[in-house]
């Protein structure tokens, strides 16, 4: 199942983590060196919510930002 918000379309974003070694110059060292880069994904904070849509109650995945902003009408 895809990790996409049904309201705003927020989806996973790609990025990297950077490994560094050494003491920073401002702390008296010779500077930091990059020793490795590895890929990672930033996943959205999605929740399953029961929503009333077109008179029917369905469950959709919604990000917490949309829930907090009140863009979703929850079903009782």
Keywords:
single chain, 76 residues, mainly beta, two-stranded antiparallel sheet, two-stranded antiparallel ribbon, 1 helix, 46% strand
Offer a quick outline of the entry.
The chain has 76 residues and is mainly beta. It is 8% helix and 46% strand.
Please outline the major beta sheet: 2 strands, antiparallel
Runs in which pLDDT lies below 50 for 5 or more consecutive residues are: none
Report the sheet-strand fraction.
over 45%
* Number of helical elements: 1
What do the pLDDT scores average to? 94
**Can you give the helix content as a percent range?**
under 10%
String of helices and strands: EEEEH
Can you give a write-up of this model?
The chain has 76 residues and is mostly beta strands. The chain has one domain. 8% of the residues lie in helices and 46% in strands. The chain has one helix at 64-69, and strands at 13-21, 33-42, 46-53, 56-63. A two-stranded antiparallel sheet has the order 1-2. A two-stranded antiparallel ribbon has the order 3-4. A hairpin with a 2-residue loop joins strand 3 and strand 4 (56-63).
What does the secondary structure layout of this molecule look like, with pairings?
Layout: E1 13-21, E2 33-42, E3 46-53, E4 56-63, H1 64-69
Antiparallel strand pairs: 1-2, 3-4
């Amino acid at each position: 199942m895809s990790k996409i918000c049904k309201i705003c379309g927020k989806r996973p974003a790609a990025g990297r983590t950077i490994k560094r070694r050494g003491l920073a110059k401002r702390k008296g060292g010779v500077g930091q060196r990059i020793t490795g880069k590895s890929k990672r994904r930033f996943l959205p904070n999605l929740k399953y919510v029961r929503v009333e849509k077109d008179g029917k109650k369905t469950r959709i995945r919604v990000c917490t930002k949309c829930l907090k902003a009140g863009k979703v009408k929850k079903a009782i």
